[in-house]
Specification:
With about 260 residues, this protein is an alpha/beta fold. The protein has nine helices and ten strands. The strands form two sheets. Strands 6-7-8-3-9-10 form a six-stranded mixed sheet, with helices on both faces. The structure holds adenosine-5'-triphosphate. One of its GO terms (molecular function) is ATP binding.
Length: about 260
């Protein structure tokens, strides 16, 4: 890391991505990312918007330690060079990862049990999580007995049980209808306000990004670069109706729409 990049790694930095590029060379060579640089402070909620195929998921998987950048690029999470997955970082994908033959509660307990956390601690964590996720009444249900929104809430629970300091969300509500998605966004904000993890969210929805975030990063067409880093100065806590009716909300949405060429 050079001087400037290391200076950016202040005490409060949770995620630092510096000079990251990625070329995949499977069937044919694809340059997915080019010179990506950004930092996320501890406790910040940051969203990434960008056209389909610009490398958003690739970037998130790098922050998760699932794939490595090309030489020269570095990703640090909580001051550690990210070379593999760690329990400090939780990732939720668009499709859930629940075992169909286990109940909601058993699925939520799973990661903590695999890591052999004391039963008492797991019990406490699950009892705290179920009401937060509004799943108390469904704890004994199986995944196929849940609605899509409940399944994604349970999937979030499977990750939150590990109390990750950094939460990476790859379009976690992307497959849901608009109404359920709006409801889950409100719940996600509520959870974040209680737990205050650092969150990095990938979304295709401009209004979702503005509603949830402290900052929105916009990526270019592939190879993806960060072309905008916009601070969202809307007051918190954010009431959905008041926030979305605010003139400033409309301005942010319009500015981002313009940058993404959708206006
Ligand atoms: N494991 C891989 N092997 C080869 N190519 C890959 C791999 N993963 C991603 N790519 C390519 O890298 C590019 C970026 O993909 P990525 O999934 O990161 O984009 P994205 O912005 O998340 O897309 P979308 O918004 O459509 O989900 C694509 O061209 C994709 O085909």
């Amino acid at each position: 890391m050079d001087g400037a990049a290391s200076a950016a790694l202040t005490l409060d930095t949770a995620i630092s991505v510096s000079r990251v590029g990625k070329t995949f060379s499977a069937r044919h060579s694809v340059r997915a990312l080019e010179q990506v640089d950004f930092t996320v402070q501890r406790g910040e909620f940051v969203s990434i918007l960008g056209p389909s195929g610009c490398g958003k998921s690739t970037l998130l998987r790098m922050v998760a330690g699932l794939i490595q950048p090309d030489s020269g690029g570095e990703v640090h999470v909580l001051k550690h060079l990210q070379t593999q997955m760690s329990d400090d970082v939780g990732v939720v994908f668009q499709t859930h990862n629940m075992l169909p033959w286990e109940t909601v509660e058993a699925n939520i307990r799973l990661a903590a049990e695999v890591r052999k956390l004391p039963k008492k601690d797991i019990d406490e964590r699950v009892e705290a999580l179920l009401p937060l996720l509004k799943l108390e009444k469904f704890r004994h249900n199986y995944p196929h007995e849940l609605s899509g929104g409940m399944r994604q809430r349970a999937a979030l629970g499977q990750i939150l049980v590990m109390r990750p300091k950094v939460l990476l969300l790859d379009e976690p509500f992307g497959a849901l209808d608009a109404l359920t998605r709006d409801q889950l966004n409100v719940e996600l904000l509520r959870l974040w306000q209680e737990m205050r993890q650092t969150v990095l969210l990938i979304t295709h929805s401009i209004s979702e990004a503005v509603f949830l975030s402290d900052r929105v990063l916009v990526m270019s067409e592939r190879p993806g670069r960060i072309i905008e880093d916009m601070r969202i100065d809307l007051p918190r806590p954010r009431d959905p109706r008041k926030t979305k009716e605010a003139v400033e909300f409309g301005h942010y949405v319009a500015q981002l729409g313009h940058l993404m060429g959708v206006d």
